[in-house]
Structures are given as structure tokens and as C-alpha cells.
Amino acid sequence: MKAFLIAALGAACVAGAASANEAQLADKTVVHVGYDASSVATPRAAENLLGRLSQAAMQACGAFPGSVRDYKMTVMRSGCYQQKLDEAVAQVDSPVLSQVYQAEGSMLPASGG
């Protein structure tokens, strides 16, 4: 089984931190997503994996299953989410997953600006 990480650095400042760099390092989130060849063997399986990657990108960028819907939508519109999902799809390196991802419009809702 293969696994990879989705990591993001938060931009929030932590009180008492000596610098912005220390604050970012303190706020690093890593999410592990396991998969194997069958996870990308068919478009349906790739859709399932893409959903898991999307959830992992959400978590890496600060939204969790218990987060309110509006916050989740804000995270999905963020550059962090898009970057992490792009990186995860590229890291899996599957033509089937890439096709599903492109067909679903990168799963990114239209942003207001």
C-alpha cells in the first residue's frame, strides 16, 4: 500500500511566537492518505480516492468534519485547498485519477474573487 502526506502551513500568528516563521511551523498539519493500485483502477475507484484526497486537503488547510458548512466552503475556495489537492493528485500520478479530477473541475467551487 502506498501512502502520501498532505501538509499545509497555517498563516495564523501564535501568541508569544518570536517570529512569523515559528508561528507557521507550529501550525503545520500533516494528513496521511493510504491507497493502492485498485484505488485508481477505474473511474469510480478514482472518484472515491479523490473524495478522500479532498477531505485530507480540507483538513490540511484547517477544516475538519465537525467544521461548520460556511467555513468548509471558505476553505474549499482557498488557494491552500486547491494547491494541496493539486499536489495530492499529482503525487498519486495516475492518468485515471487525473482525468476524473479534471472532469470534476478540480472540485473547486466558483470563488467570489
Brief sketch in words of this structure:
By secondary structure, the protein is an alpha+beta fold. The chain is 50% helix and 14% strand. The chain has one domain (2-107).
Number of domains: 1
Low-pLDDT runs: 8-26
Helix-strand topology string: EHEHHHH
- What is the number of beta strands? 2
Strand content: 5-15%
Q: What gap, in angstroms, lies between the N and C termini?
A: 40 Å
From the alpha-carbon coordinates, what is the Rg to the nearest angstrom?
15 Å
Overall pLDDT metric = 77
Helix content: 40-55%
- Count every helix, treating DSSP H or I runs of 4 or more residues as helices: 5
Shape: globular
Q: Structural class, judged by helices and strands?
A: alpha+beta
How many strands, which pairing sense, and closed or not: the largest β-sheet?
2 strands, antiparallel
Report strand order across the widest sheet: 1-2
Account of the 3D structure:
The protein is α+β, with helices and mostly antiparallel strands. The protein has one domain (2-107). The chain has 5 helices and 2 strands. It has a two-stranded antiparallel sheet. Helix 2 (43-60) crosses helix 4 and helix 2 (43-60) crosses helix 5. It is globular and about 35 Å long. It starts with a strand and ends in a 10-residue tail after the last helix. Mean pLDDT is 77; it is low at 8-26.
Topology, element by element:
Elements (H helix, E strand, L loop, with lengths): L1 E8 L10 H7 L1 E8 L7 H18 L8 H8 L2 H14 L2 H9 L10
Antiparallel strand pairs: 1-2
Helix pairs in contact: 2-4, 2-5
